[in-house]
Amino acid sequence: MPVPRVSVVEEEIRVTRERLADRIGQLEQAATPAGIAQSAVQVVRGFYVDEDGFLRIPRVAATVGVVVGLIVLRRLL
Prior knowledge:
mainly alpha, single chain
């Protein structure tokens, strides 16, 4: 098996280091309060909005029904 050239190994190390630095930057951003909030918004949006950007009416209606039911129940008790 041929031994890789030093320049090839150095280039692979450089590329790997850049990828690692980019990934660390992404993780740092995701770990901030704003990054966490943005992730939560995407999860909620994914639940209520389909791939075409339209509301998922049954899910919205179910959520509204639960909220209204809880409000009525709280006022009764």
